[in-house]
Amino acid sequence: MELLTYTVEEVAAMLGTARSATYEAVREGRIPAVRMGRRWLIPRERFHAWLNGATTTDAA
User: Fold this and answer.
1) What topology does CATH give the domain 5-59?
2) pLDDT (0 to 100) of residue 1
3) Euclidean distance between the first and final Cα of the chain, in Å?
4) In the prediction, which pLDDT does 57 show?
């Protein structure tokens, strides 16, 4: 069974960014995420849609 979310640490590794910078982007809403108690979870589908949109926008 495939999980529906990524952790901030997983996203940081995929993006090649520091964990602290990724947490900051999540808190500021630049990376789509939801807060579950004390944890941030990044929905896989929303993350990949955001990433594809960010790549297309940045390249234009």
Assistant:
1) Multidrug-efflux Transporter Regulator; Chain: A; Domain 2 (1.10.1660)
2) 85
3) 37
4) 47
